[in-house]
Amino acid sequence: MSVIKNTILLFKSDKTDDTRDEYQDLLELNNFKVMMVKTLTFQYKNLDILRQKLLNPDGFSGIILSSPRCVNAVSQALSKDKLEELWNPKSNFTVGETTCKEAIAKLSIQCKGKWSGNAKNLSQLIIQNKSEYVKPFLFPHGNLKTDILKVELSKENLTIEEVLVYDTLPNPSIERDLFECTDRFTTIPEFLVFFSPSGLHSSLEYLRKIPVDLNLLITIGPVTELAVIEQNLKVYGVAKSPTPEEVLKAIL
Fold first, then answer.
1. Would you state the pLDDT for residue 16?
2. Which residues pair with 142 in a beta bridge?
3. Mean pLDDT value of segment 159-177
4. What is the DSSP letter of 188?
5. Judging by DSSP bridges, how do beta strands 160-170 and 40-44 pair with one another?
6. Which pLDDT does position 7 carry in this prediction?
7. 10 Å Cβ neighbour count for 7?
8. Which of 26, 42, 56, 137 has the fewest CB atoms lying closer than 10 Å?
9. Residue pair 125/113 in contact by the 8 Å Cβ criterion
10. Could you tell me if 132 and 158 are in contact, meaning their C-beta atoms sit under 8 angstroms apart?
11. Residue 242 pLDDT
12. What distance in Å separates the CA atoms of residue 246 and residue 227, rounded to the nearest whole number?
């Protein structure tokens, strides 16, 4: 089993569009060879319920978008209806820069919170102006969400109205994809980058076929870091936020 220097394997979820991957672009610009294994796929649901709420914004202080999948669910639910006319006057928030970019590109709405990085930080940002928010926030989410945002906001008597809009599922072809990336489990990249606990767990069974302790493991954020540590694996670096720049810093 040989370790290939300056090679990075990204364990990422399925993309919501066909654009180039920004992580891959930046890492390749810095002379790394980049491979990707899709860890998760997403199945959308309850879009009719979401649509009814989106078309009645008067009942909400704003919308909270916690991932690109949430943005995609809103886009699908609306079809050709214009979200920006209804929701831009509201106080809208995203967790992370990527989600903020998606909200602008697909929904044409402006959001605060792109530097928050996680639900705890975002809740603190919202609480700063809590007196302005007398109505609940609309919160479309996936089946693996945590209750951090709800709990933190409730401490300040702020509420969210939740709609489950997608289920997260393991990629059924992950073993084959990993098999190909590692040349039949005979070579391994120098760096492995994990984007979420669910992505780690969906690939862990197959990762055990290679000596993971030879790799330098990078995680996105402290929650994924903890998930790796709980598997008795050593974390080499932690990206402070889900951006290509922070992943590059953690690797370097």
1. 57
2. 166
3. 94
4. E
5. antiparallel
6. 95
7. 16
8. 56
9. yes
10. no
11. 82
12. 19
Two tokens, residue 68: 């690109």
| pLDDT at residue 13, as a whole number | 82
CB atoms within 10 A of CB 5: 10
Dihedral sign, Cα of residue 139, residue 145, residue 146, residue 148: negative
DSSP code at position 232: T
Give CA–CA dist 190/178, Å, rounded: 14
Beta-ladder partners of 112: 93
Strands 160-170 and 137-142: parallel
Average pLDDT of the chain, as a whole number:
91
* pLDDT score of 104 more than 90: yes
- Stretch 205-226: mean pLDDT, rounded? 86
Six-digit token string for 172? 């059924």
pLDDT band at 98; cut points 50, 70, 90: confident
Nearest alpha-carbon partner for 193 in 233, 229, 239, 145:
239
The neighbour count for residue 131, using CB atoms within 10 Å, is: 7
Instruction: Give mean pLDDT, residues 63-76.
Output: 94
Query: Shortest CA distance to 178 belongs to which of 168, 169, 170, 188?
Result: 188
Contacts 24+ apart (CB under 8 A), 109-113: 109/63, 109/83, 109/84, 111/65
- C-alpha angle with apex 140: 89 to 137, nearest 5 degrees? 45
How far is it, in rounded angstroms, from Cα 161 to Cα 140?
8
